[in-house]
Amino acid sequence: MLKLKSVNFEQRQFQNHHLDQSYPGQTEWVIGRNTTSDLVLPSPEVSRVHGQIIYNDDTYHFVDVGSTSGTLLNGEAVLVHDRRPLRPGDLLQIGETFLYVEELSPPTPVSFVPAPVATLPLPDQLWTEGDLQCRCCRIIDETADVKTFCFVAEPPVLFTYQPGQFVNVQVEIDGKPVIRPYSISSSPTRPYHLSITVKRVSSPPDQPDAPPGLVSNWLHDHLQVGDRINFIGGPIGHFTCLPNLPSKLLLISAGSGITPMMSMSRWVQDSLADCDIVFLHSARSANDLVFRTELETMAAQMPNFHLAITVTRQLSGHAWMGYTGRISKSLLHLVAPDLLERSVFVCGPDGFMQGVKSMLEAMSFPMQNYQQESFGGKKPTVSNTKTTVPVETRPDQATVILSNGNLNNGNGHRVANSVTSKSAPMVSFAKSNKEVVADDCSSILELAEQEGIAIPNACRVGACGACKVVTRQGQVRYDAPPAALSDKDQQAGYALACVGYPVDRVVVEA
Which residues form the FAD-binding FR-type domain (predicted)? Predict the structure, then answer.
């Protein structure tokens, strides 16, 4: 180890320096003005690389490597590239800085310790359902109001989902758990992490008193790398290009609707799937374009990926060479001349999706090849056809309507009857020991909230499944087929509280 003391009287700086091995076998140290030097002397008279100290044959030597102002050792000029031995008490003058050699000893050996190898989860550790705690490991600022949050599981798992699906994210705000659905922006081809891309949500301009996005804004303002959140219930949703991948896709999105489209496009890119994609996205301006660099790279590298971006507002002083204006019939024909041969996926605000859907219908597009996704927070339009899902009962419970319209008396015997219960509809909350008379306008979730009973919920439109509750008996009807309720769920006695309405007396485990 070489201990030096530096003194610069002009700058009134006094420092102690220790030069030792920072890696195994180091025997040379650089002195200079460059910040990468082993000993940095920030003085204009010092060259960027001024000299070296070399340890050889149990002796430290100083070498001037060709400095501009030269070096003095004990008052004598040091010739360029002349190796001069150093001893305790020697004084080096480099520009305005004096270096006093305080102590000399052999360098302390440094043993090489290999970096720990990350332990990857085994292939059988898969996450397909159930709650999961995850740690935020990276946050990417996509635009001024959009961030991507990347998560790994604790303990680690392989994330298994379909590209285009979403997850229910649970965070705690003001001491209360809150759940919201977010589309997954990463691809299942990269299973060691899962990402969601979130836009900050402001109050609508025409409704300044309306509350802004609670969870989205909380994630932007509070979530940091290292923080933990929960994913509830596993990946969910039918908005995906799998398992039957079409040979031609037209992905149409606006705003945050780009998120599931990126997941599907990344999957096609990583899997080298034989699928031709036209990626049409509408952004407010060029500054609001999420994933711009990645999309341009995909378009440059993938011959089967065709990118088309249109902006609805041009910024002064910013050149834009792409399309402008809203998506129209002429734009669809321009970017996808073979439109009628493609499967179309649409995601974005409700008004945007309705406009695209109406446009495609007017173009005689085969709507069986059309899918859309949205978490707009609006209840589905009530249709004239009611969907009634009977609840399976346990053998010791009351008679309920089965799917074929017959009655089951609880002992396994069927009675031919298609008449439903004539009693007034009501909901009995078993755990809370409360019972409330229902009406045609209030869902099970709304009735629970009226009684102060907490049922987890997120989208409130029957899309995410966060409000699934176990029903012990009774019938539940829906104004439209519940998207987040599978046949397996129905057989297990689950109902969607946010869009489910009691037909008779329904007993809920809540």
Answer: 129-242
DSSP string, 96-123: TEEEEEEEE-PPPP----PPPPP-PPPT
* Of 70, 131, 118, 93, residue with least CA distance to 9: 93
User: Within 13 A of 310's CA, how many CA atoms are on the CB side?
Assistant: 18
Cα–Cα distance for residue pair 13/380, rounded to 1 Å: 73
Distance, CA of 312 to CA of 310 (rounded, Å): 7
Quick one: CA dihedral 140, 144, 352, 326, positive or negative?
negative
- Which of 49, 4, 36, 230 has its CA nearest to residue 130? 230
Could you check whether the bond before residue 212 is cis, i.e. omega within 30 degrees of 0?
no
Please name which of 332, 338, 337, 280 lies closest in space to residue 305, comparing C-alpha atoms.
280
Tokens of 194: 């899962």
Which is it for the CA torsion 368, 337, 259, 381, positive or negative? negative
Sole residue written with tokens 């249709």? 383
φ/ψ of 198, rounded to 5, equals: -120, 135
Q: Within 13 Å, how many C-alpha atoms sit on residue 365's CB side? A: 27
Q: Please check whether residue 315 is in contact with residue 292, taking contact to mean a CB–CB distance below 8 angstroms.
A: no
For the chain, count helices (H), then strands (E). Answer: 7, 36
- Listed residue (424, 426, 437, 428) closest to 469, CA to CA: 428
Q: Cα–Cα distance between 107 and 235 in angstroms, integer?
A: 57
User: Count of CB atoms within 10 A of residue 417's CB?
Assistant: 11
**Phi, psi angle pair for 259, to nearest 5°:** -60, -55
Nearest to 89 by CA among 75, 103, 79, 76: 103
Q: Indicate the pairing of strand 228-236 with strand 305-311.
A: unpaired
Residues 6+ apart with CB under 8 A from 212: 201, 202, 203
Q: Reduce the DSSP state of residue 241 to 3 states and report it.
A: coil
Q: Confirm if 366 and 270 have CB atoms less than 8 A apart.
A: no
pLDDT, tens digit, 9 for 90 and up, residues 21-75: 888 888 999 999 988 899 998 888 899 999 999 999 899 999 999 999 999 999 9
Q: Is 362 strand, coil or helix? A: helix
Phi, psi dihedral angles at 152 (to 5 degrees): -120, 155
pLDDT tens-digit readout, 244-295: 999 999 999 999 999 999 999 999 999 999 999 999 999 999 999 999 999 9
pLDDT in tens, 129-159: 889 999 999 999 999 999 999 999 988 899 9
How many alpha carbons fall within 13 Å on the CB side of residue 77?
7
Please report, as a single letter, which amino acid is at residue 491. Q
